[in-house]
Automatic annotation (TrEMBL):
Keywords: Transcription, Transcription regulation. Residues 247-380, 391-556 form the GAF domain. This is GAF domain-containing protein. Pfam families: BAT, GAF_2, HTH_10, MEDS. It comes from the Archaea.
Amino acid sequence: MAAPSSPTLSLRELEADDEHHDHFALLYETQSEQFAVAVPFVKRGLDRGERVIYAVSQNSKAGIVEAMRAGGIDVDEARDSGALSLVDLTEIYRTGDDFEAEEVLADIEALVTNVDEDRYDGIRLTAEATGFLEQGVDPDELLAYEDTVNELYPRLPFVGLCQYDRTKLSPTVTEGIVRHHPLLGYRDALGTNAYYHPDDGSADSRDEIGAKLEAHHEKATAVSENRQQERGITTLSEATQQLHEVETDEIPSVAAGAARRAIDAPLAAFWRYEPGKQELVLAAIDHHATDDVGDLTQFCGQAWETFVSHECTQRDVDGSVVPDSDVRRLTFVPVTDAGVLAVATERPDGLTGDQLRVTRILASAVHVAFAEATKDERLETKREELERLRTVNALVQRVLRAVVDGSTRDEVETQLCESVTALDPFAFAWIGDVDPDAETVSPHCWAGSGQEYLTDVLAAGVSGPTTTAISSGETCVVPAIADDLHTDEWRREAVGRGFRSVASVPIADADLSYGVLTVYATRPTVFTQSVSAILDELGTLVGQRITMVEQEAAFRARERRTLELELAASNFPFVQLAAHADRTFEVEDLVVKADDRVLAAATVTGASRDRVSDAVDDSVTIESGEVVHETADTYLLDLVFSRPFVGAALANHGAVLESITATPTDATLVVSEPEPMNGRLVPDLIADRYPELKLLARREQQSQPAVPGSPAAAFRERLTDRQLQVLRTAYHAGYFESPRHCTGDEVAEALDISSQGFYQHMRRIQRTLFESVLERDSSSRVE
């Protein structure tokens, strides 16, 4: 069995470090979802020295043992020592008519109270609770117990996880479980439950519960990513300050500790370069649980390879490196001429891109700290270089603080400029981007003394480092503005206002550009080419933060706006289809699949199925495709493009490609986007692939009224996004025609879902339709 994946938020983050009073619920639909939370829950308890009991009802004990072993638990040792017990549900709980909330609560309290405090730090109990209902426990009594058991957690060393198979629960029971548990797991997300209201007696429908669980999943995932990023940035900020307050010999320990904490790694180490010996020495190891970390000297060769090549390298490891841990790989990051940082991860593919970026920034700060610590041994010219590095390091600290504190894009950009200019010798900072309509640089925000310079230079259309950074997408550094003073007009303007050096840093995240940060200093050579790598990483970090806050705003948005765009691009896939078929394609429903497939319902008047199929086969931008179904002049196309479809990039940022009208020469796209989203983001995403883009119209869309005006509106509003997707695909595939043009199994195959899943969706859709019509009819008669 493959090792179970871990939930998005670690149990260490959700459980208090000094108190055990957590009540978790897990709603799962598959065994893999169940074990992804249950196994780490058990392992967490064993690592904390707790007595762990697993009450079994749905799975076999052998299957649970196999999952635990795959998750890194030494089951035999834990069971032999008495720390872990696998028991039948009936050995711990009363069942059937004997299950009464108050009596079961007393049983659990006695179990917790009687734990051997000399051997264990508490008790951790998880139960496959679906078995209660299967063994005749009254649902009301079960929910009453789930409510009253919350009283135990604040006063006893007790952690509990109630596992429920959602596919076997009624909406009433599911709603009650959600309402009575302060901590909730759903699919791969584990987090604080916003719907925890034990005194609320309201009841939700199945669809409403599903919507709540989906919202909980998205929120927990977003909170996890936010916490990881904020932890890394906060640790960096603290470490860069601490590195300049400790003695030289203490720098390796500070570096290793900061590297481990910044990404919540199990272990980090630092190899320091000794110039006299011309070799690396293992100078520090930091581990979150124990000092027994095995023999890391076996990796000295790997560290030396990283130091010499000045390239990041990775090495697979086994359990000998960190006993009682799941470390899979070590990533080695060079620290210029100071040494090498190594960070361990439980991920088999090592650090993520974000984690590697944070580690590289820390490595740069460590290099600066070593350089400053040895400044008394340097020549006078070297002292000047160290002063520059210290200034840049202070700039890094301020940028990190601004990124953490900003909760919107405006706040991030404003605080970024203000925090930079509050530090000497940085006199002026601004963020700007190219205005595609005017073909000029347009400022977003600025701070410091230099607004007149900015106004004069931009008004004159003078090219400078900002323009260079925008066009190249790379950091542009001018160490001494006064050099070549008479070759560039912007230099004369800058020197005349006291500016002596400047750096322009692109702010970007993947394929998204948020402009360029340009910083002016009143001293020369503050910025050099040697610091451009640090500035590049910071620009990406700021871009990622802006993406995150804008995605959070999009998630909360209740209003959207619609953009109508004209695209004159012969290489746009649907324009190619229209050209080959010599017909206009009207595409209203597009489903972008996770495997880069796209299901598109296209209306093509006057074209036969063979002609449409030939157009698909002849398109150079379509890797593979076919006409799945045909209804009148509407065709359901199953397409795989030779490069990622632009609709996927839009969806990743909260926008939806609603429709396409493609002729043999151009296409009109209708895209809806959340109201808080940057109005230029959608055009920028499309123009990145197809530059010949024109914005035709922008219209605001109000959110749906609370009381719909028609049965159709009520029906549409009650459908989930997935149900609407299934309904549209079935409709266009001819499932509702008489006779049917396709079976439900064929629609399920096109959507990559099970046949049972398709028919379940259809039954829920039909019930929602009938409820919308009949409730409307009933209310009309009452009126």
